[in-house]
Amino acid sequence: MMVRAVAGVAVALWLSAPVLGAQTAAPLRQLLQDASLRNRLPDSLISYKANVETEIAILLRREEGVEAVGAIEQVASRLRWNRAGGYEQRVQGYRAQQLGGNVSMLTLFQTGWINPVLYGNRLRVRPRSSNSRGQAAAVSRNRDGSDTLPAVHPLATDRDAYYTYSGGDTIVTMRAGDRVIPIAHVRVQPRPDVKGKVILFDGEMDLDASRGTLVRLRGHFLRTGASRSSLGSTLADAVAYVEYENGERNGQYWLPATQRIELQANSPLLGDGRAVIRIVSRFANMEVNDTVLDAATLAKADSLRALARRPLTYASTDSLNRFSAWRYTIGASTNGMHADDFQDIAPDRWRTTGPPRFDLSAPRPADVMHFNRVEGLFTGVGGKFALRDLAPGVVVRANAGYAWAEQTVRGRVAIERTRGPWSLELRGGRSMDITNDFRAPLDSGNTFAALSSLDSYDYVSRNFTALSAVRRIGARRWILRADVGYGDDRYRAAQYVRGPFGGDLYRANHGVDEGSYMRSAAVVEWHPDLNAESLKPGLGARVAYERGDGTLSWQRTEARLSGRRPVGPFMLLARGDVGMVTGSRIPSQQLFELGKYQNLPSYEDKQFAGSRAAALRASLQYTSKFLRNPIRVGQFWLPAVAPGLSVGAQSGWADAPTNAARASVDRLTVIDPTLLALWAPVATPTGRVRASVTAGFRFFGNALFVGATRPVDQSAKWRTLVGLGQQW
C-alpha cells in the first residue's frame, strides 16, 4: 500500500507556483551573472564515466516524525556521458531487503534516473510518467525525440524572465584539496507572471562564491499552468524533491557526487504521516574526458539542444549474479536522511507557518476504516486545524467514527503545541485499544485480516483524557515523553463468531477488569526509527514506566533493545523485551501474553500469560548469489527471487509469582455464550523458558519465508510456517 500511495501520487502531481520574495539586490545580481557565465558547459569537458551506487528506500514517515523503512533496493550501475547528449546507464548489480510483498521500484525507472551534469541553460528532468506508455507519450510530445523534459535552469541566460532570487550570503566554507571554497546560499523562486506551460525550479542553490560555480541544487520542479482542480489533488499533496551535489573533478569541473530524489505523498488516510520513496545515488571512480569526439560532433553539441535520451540497460543474468563490488552495506546510503529535511520548501499543507488552515485528515488509516471481531466494521473521518501564524505551533485534531456491529461512536480530540524540541498535548476521547504486548512499533492492528477470521488481538474499550509533554534530543536520537491523565476501562465481547468471509471460530475477547484510574507514564526512546522491524541498520532501545491509581491500580515497567546488522550476504537481526507489572489486584488487561503471534510461533495464540515476562528472538538470514536479477512482468519489475536460507530462535518466559498475578491470569477467561466450546484455561504461565526454532527459505529480499517451526523445550513435530516479514 505504501508503494502504491507514492507511485500513484508522487510521480504524477505538479504543484502550483508559490508567492515571490524580494527583488534581487545588486551584489546578488553580480554573483548570479558570474555564475551563469561559468555554468556554460566547459569547452574542454567532453565526457566522463563513473560507477554509481543507488539505494532506493520505501518508507513511512509517521505522524510523530519517526520513519519506518519497509523496503530497500540497492542498484549498482555504470554511467557513461558525453556532451553531445550521449548517455548510457547499465545496471551491473542488484539486491534488496523487504518486509512485505512489493513491486520493485525499478518500475518507476524504466529509463536512467541520473542527471549527468548541472551545466547549461536547461536541465533535463523526467516526464510525469515513467512507465513505457508514459515514455511513449513523452517522446511523441517532444520534437527532439528525447525521453526527458527541459526545465529552465536557475542559472540560465534568460533566468530573469522566470525566477526571482534572494540571499547570496556566504554561509559556509568547504575544502577541495588545498583550496578553501566559500559557499553562497541563494533562494530561487518562480515568478508568478510566467505565461504558458514551462517547467521551473523552486528551491535553493549553493554557489562557489570565489568562482561562481554551482555546488548544490536543492528543491523541486513544477510546471506552470498545471491544473490542480481534481478531488485527489485537493485532498492530497505529492512532491518530487531533488538534492543534487557536485564535486570538483580535475580541479576545473563540477560534476555529480551525490544525487537524491525523494518522492513524498500525503493523504487524509495518513494524517501527518507520509509515504516516501527515497533514491540516493553516489558516484565513484569517475574518469573525465575518457572519450574522443570528432570536430563535427563537437560543433553540434550544445547544452540547449542535446537530445538527452537516458537509456537504461541491464547486464546479463550471470553478471548480475556474480556482482559483489558493493561500496556500501545495504541501508547505509540513506541512513541519516529524513523526510523533514525538505520541510522548509514543503507544500503549504505540510508547513507550520502561514495563515490558519483546516484539512480533512485522520491520524491513522485505521481511524478511517478497520475491522475487528469486537467493533465489526468501523468507518470514520478526521480533521486537522493548524493555527500556524495565528498561534505558532498550535494544532487541533479531531476524528470520529462508528463501529457498526458494536453500535458505538468512538473518536478523539487533541490540542497540541510544538515549540522547538518541545511538544505539549492535551487529548481525550473514547477508543478501542489493543492489549497485546511487546508489539512492533508500526503495529496498529490487523486492519482487515480479521475479515478472514485472523484476529490475534484483544481489546479494551477505554475512555481517557491525558496531558503529555515530549522532548526530542538531537536529530531524532532521543525522544522523552511524560503523560498524566484519567482512564476508564470497560469490557466488550466479540460481536462475530467467525469472519464474514468464513474461517475458523474467533476466540473470545480476553477478560478485562473494569474500573477507572489516574494514569501516569514516562517513556525514553533511543534511536526510535532503528528497530528489528524496520530495515534501517543499527540499534534502538525503549524503556517505559506506567502506573494507575484508583479503582484499578498497578505499576508496569518495560524495556526493549533491538537492531539489525548486514554483513556481506548475511543479515543479523535480534530483539529482546522484558516487562513486569505489580499490584494488589493486577488488571487482566495489563498482563503480558505470549504465543504464536507473540514471539513463540510453535505454540498456540496467547497460550502463556503472567505478570513478569521476557521475550528474545534472533534470526540469521543469508541471501544466495543466484537469481539476483529483478524480474520484468509487462510494465512492472518484481524484486529478484534471490533465494536464501534463514534460521531463527525465539524464546519466551511468563511468570505469575503472586496470588494477585495468578488470579489476574484466571480472569482472562471469559465464557462466551455464542461459542460452542471453550478452551480452559485461556492462558497459563510458561512454567519454564519456552523456545522455538525456525528454519527455511527466504525469497524476494527476505520478504517471503517458507519453512517450518518446532518447540525445542519439549518433544514435538515440525510444523509448516509461511509468512511475510522478517520477524522469524
Automatic annotation (TrEMBL):
Keywords: Signal. The keyword Signal applies. Residues 1-21 form the signal peptide. Residues 126-152 are annotated as: Disordered. This is TonB-dependent receptor-like beta-barrel domain-containing protein. It comes from Gemmatimonas phototrophica.
